Amino acid sequence: MEIFFNETYNTLWTALSSIMGVVATTLAIFALLYSMRTYRKTMQVVHYGEIDKMYFEILKEALAKPHLVQQNIERSATQEVEYGIYAFIVWNFLESIYDRCVLDSELKKTWFPIIEAERKIHLVWIQESENRAKFKTEFLEFIDKGKFEVA
Fold first, then answer.
1. Distance (Å, whole) CA 140 – CA 134
2. Is the pTM of this model over 0.85?
3. Please, is 128 exposed, middle or buried when counting C-beta atoms within 10 Å of its C-beta (0-12, 13-18, 19+)?
């Protein structure tokens, strides 16, 4: 055993120790990057599930009150109030989806067709100046263009 602890091998052990330190640091960096990537993908799945759930709740409301999605109909005063609130909820949701699509282009494949479909139903509401003031300019320009191609 003394052969490994004499002065001749002292530099060898120091060199090996340094090399192992570099290897360990490199592995730790790769593990951190992998963990961050995995976390990001997991959060995308979780967020997608949350978005889907929110949209389902919006659709359930329309199912319970069909006048909320019918176009060119006469509504009572109460129904007009309900529609105004519902349309605001829909457009607010769509703006949130648009914001997420800007950050994650994969979402465009799923959500741009839905934005287009909801736009067809509620376009008149968002074209009113009092309602436009509630949304970001970039989102309004996106809606006004009506181009929902996935690039």
1. 10
2. no
3. exposed
